[in-house]
Amino acid sequence: MPYTDAVIHEVQRFANILPTGLPRATTTNVLFRNYYIPKTQWETPDTFNPGHFLDSAGKFMKKKAFMPFSAGRRVCAGASLAKMELFLFFTSLLQKFTFQPPPGISHLDLDITPNFSFLNRPMPHKICALPRT
Ligand code: HEM
Question: Which of this chain's residues are annotated to bind heme (predicted)?
């Protein structure tokens, strides 16, 4: 399920729930001591876009810049478990339910600004889970 996998990765990239360390970025592409530091690693950094994780044939592709579990010696010890759980929970819920805002509220009205307090948490939202027929 490459598209589902891409959507989950894009949710993690976009939500950025544990933005560890101080945010650092260059304002332009920089060449420093022969290291190329791009301004951004993503085609549309501020827009939700599962295409970030799909190649031109629609196959899932890994990206080195995707590091929600950190990297190196302090990489998340539960990463494999968390990835498996995210995929299983997400697919089983979406197979059984359609999620949508309550009647009278458009998805465009939902405020997806993160509620930051060390972690980036979502704002509270009311949501309807409609069983799929
Ligand atoms: C989506 C779910 C999860 C995310 C995004 C996540 C993310 C992270 C990140 C970014 C770190 C590194 C913090 C640092 O820079 O020191 C970390 C560390 C850690 N995580 Fe997770 N984590 C998740 C789920 C889990 C689960 C399910 C477990 C255990 C069952 C777990 C256990 C740990 C442990 C033990 C560490 C410390 C590793 C060390 O410093 O040696 N995590 N996690």
Answer: 76
